[in-house]
Structures are given as C-alpha cells and as structure tokens.
Amino acid sequence: MKELLRTNNPVTLSFVEALLRDAGINVMVADQHMSILEGSIGVLPRRLLVENDDHNQAVRVLNEAGLSDELC
Description:
The protein is α+β, with helices and mostly antiparallel strands. It has a domain at 2-50. The protein is built from 3 helices and 3 strands. Strands 1-3-2 form a 3-stranded antiparallel β-sheet, with helices on one face. The longest helix is centred in the N-terminal third of the chain and has 13 residues, at 10-22.
C-alpha cells in the first residue's frame, strides 16, 4: 500500500474516496479511528492508501479532478 494523501478534512477524504472507487481503485483510510485518542477534535490527519500498482492511476484521477495540491 502506498500513501496518496493526508487530510483532516472529512469532505475532501470522502470526495477522493468516491472518485477513486468510481475509477475502480480500492482505497484504505488509515488512522480513521485515531479521533478516540485525540478527543475527537480532528487534529490527526487521516491517510488514504492505495495499492502500489494503482498509485499512478490514482494520481492521474486526482490531478484530473483538480486535487493535485492534496497529494503527498
């Protein structure tokens, strides 16, 4: 798995997940449940991971959607 982006923004995370799934790319959100440790204040970013083989395609999808600034 390769990290594609990190964000504290749940809207961005949800949008990127939907874009990638629509493109047939499986995604995994890491650190999703870390809010329990941080007190649910949203300080710790969530990481979106994709398979190594899908990384280049995922980058293309995000670039085409105008989200290149979100990439790691």
